[in-house]
Structures are given as C-alpha cells and as structure tokens.
Amino acid sequence: MLKRIPIQQLRLGMHVHGLCGSWMEHPFWRTRFLLTDPQDLERIRRTRIQTLWIDTSKGLDVEESAPFRPPSAPAAPPEVLAGAAEDGSRGTDRQPTSIEVELRRAAAICASARDAVTEMFSEARMGRTVDPRQVDGLVDQISASVARNPGALISLARLKTSDNYTYMHSVAVCGLMVALARQLGMKEPGVQLAGTAGLLHDMGKAAVPLAVLNKPGRLSDAEFAQIRDHPVAGHALLQQAHMPQPVLDACLHHHEKMDGSGYPHGLQGEQIGLLARMAAICDVYDAITSNRPYKRGWDPSEALRRMAQWTHSHLDSRLFQAFVKTIGIYPAGSLVRLESGRLAVVMAQSGDSLVTPRVKSFFSTRSGLRIPPEVLDLGAPGCTERIAGREDPERWGFPDLDTLWMDALEAEPA
C-alpha cells in the first residue's frame, strides 16, 4: 500500500517509493529503495523535500513502532562508500565504476556543484571576484566523476529546471569539456584547464539582468545585445581572478564560429583557441538538448545530427568527431527503434562500439502498446538485437523518457 507522509515521519525500515520533488532537490539517483542507512535518512531530512511516498507492503508503516535493526551489510555497495570523504580533494577516487554505481555519486556532485555555481554567480553580481580555489575543487569533483564513468554526470546534468538552467549548464559543460579533453588525449593539467573553462565559460551572464537572462519569450534587440556582451563581461571578470590565459580565451571566444560569423571578434578557423573551439561544441550540445521555458530540448541523437550539419561553418569538424566518440552516436536519453520493432530508450554506452549501447525497450510499434520493460546490452555476446534507427520523441509523445532511462539503471541487463 502506498502512503504519502511528511518527511518528519520517515524512519529506518520504511520503503521509499518516491520523493516529492525533482531529482535536483535531493542527492539520490534512485527514488525507490528500502531505507536502511542512518546517513541516508539524515541526507533526506536535510533536503528541500517536504513529503514522500512509502510502500508499506515492502517496509514499515508509520504506525509500526518496533525498533528497526539494519542488516549487517552496508546499504550502499562498497564502491559507493569507498573514498566518499575524498570527493573534494585531488586524491579523489577515479577508479572506473558502472553507471549504476556512479549515478548516485554524480547526483550528489551535481546538487552541490549547482549550489556552488549559484553562489559564485551571486557573488559576481555583487562585484566580488571568483575564488580560484573553489573553482579547482568543483572541477576536480566533476572530473573525478567523469573519470569513473562519464555517462552518469553528463546525463544527469542535462536534466535541468528552468530556474537553475544557467548554473547547471555550467556544470554540464564542465563535464563535457573534461570528457572531450580526455578523448583528445590531453594530460591531466590540460583536462583540468578544459574543465575550468567549461565551468566558467558563461560567467559573464552574471552581468546580464536576471529579467533578461530568464525571460521566457523572445528577446528584444536591446536585450539580445546584452546577452551578446556576456563573453566580454566574463573575460573581464575572470581577468580579475587571474585565471589562466586558455580559460580566459575560452570564455571570450566560445561564441566564435569557424567561418568567422561569430562574436565578439569574428575570428575564423584556428584563430580561435583550442579550448574555445571545444567549448563551442560542448556549449551548443548542452543548450540544444536542455528544456527551456520557450523551447523543448532536442533528443540527444537528433542534436548530434543537427550539429554535424554545422561543422566547417560553425564547429570544428575534427573536434566534433572526437565529441561524438565521447558521448556516443546515441547518447543516454535517446529514443531508438530496434530491428524487432520495439522502441527503446538509451541508458548508457557499452563497450567500444558507438552503435551498441545499453537500452531499455518498453513499447511495441507492431501492437502500438507498452510492453514489459527489458534492459538489453546490445554489445553483449549473443545479443541479436540491433538499432534500426533513431526516433523523434515528439512524434510519439512519451512523457517519461528521462524517468525510463534513470529508473532502468536499477535493473541488470538481460
């Protein structure tokens, strides 16, 4: 039996069925689990969540008063707990993990990074300089998560709300820049610079009035001019913080285009610095795949198809090819049609192939009905299912694609 209760009544031994709020308001990548860890109980109580659903058929009810004894095994896998206290240091655990394990850690990192970036923008609006030590700590946490499993944080950071778009966009571009830098074979100091450039590339938006920045409708010419000024404003702001030159260049020139039609200086080709060309790709990808008040984000694989048409004129084609290898032809959240006629949502990349991700099938195009969900690793030996092509989510109107791929990560592949 499902029961909605206030957060104050939550106790160990209850089975959490759902937290009443968006995932960005809590640090848990799962929303259905038996509550056995006192630390998890305390973390839930510290969130903004006011109420939640419990399943009394799988755990204690509010009326039950018998003391709960947690099992001897830890509530979270050992690999989640190991090194958890080190997330803010350069010695952070970077050993590869499954996406299932990393999602929980990535959710906590995204939540804390969102708050830190929000504060950073607020401080900048009051005329205070960016603290390089805070930036280094944030980039290191994000970089460590991407090293453990790039799909987790990058996929979570794409899921934004309208009121935190600017701040989570910075986190997402940081993660994408780190992943792209590693794909390009950069050494760790270069990876750190790339991540820093991604985190700070839009700092100039702190100089844009919030009414303009968050305007849901079409901008006037004057308002658009204010937006176009943000690279110059950000460059000046980061100069005061004595940021490295490549970071300054990426902030100033991430809206330049390969054909010279960008701004603020109309640079062409390799006149644009490497980090700025990388930031242009990462910035565009996250922007066009994110939902905004005035426009629904494109499906990730559709976004890559559109971006491929912009190479040479807008984006560096060589760097774009590396970017596709970084996130896959079918990034997490993409809707695909399988050769069997089933529709599936992509959960994560699998192996070395760009066309054999892990997917969750949930709909039959032949019957036109939902089917029992099945998790498939298309790259596993013996798997005969293949992707026939991408599908437009707008055509099908499924409201729960993001929930499908995130919930599916609790299951084991078939």
Folded structure, characterized:
With 414 residues, the chain is α+β, with helices and mostly antiparallel strands. It has 3 domains: 2-72, no CATH class; 97-327, Hypothetical protein af1432; 335-408, no CATH class. Helices cover 43% and strands 12% of the residues. The protein is built from 16 helices and 9 strands. Strand 5 (335-338) and strand 6 (342-348) form a beta hairpin. Helix 4 packs across helix 6 (165-183), helix 6 (165-183) packs across helix 12 (274-289) and helix 7 crosses helix 11. The longest helix is centred in the first third of the chain and has 27 residues, at 99-125. The protein starts with a strand and ends in a 6-residue tail after the last helix. 40% of the residues are buried.
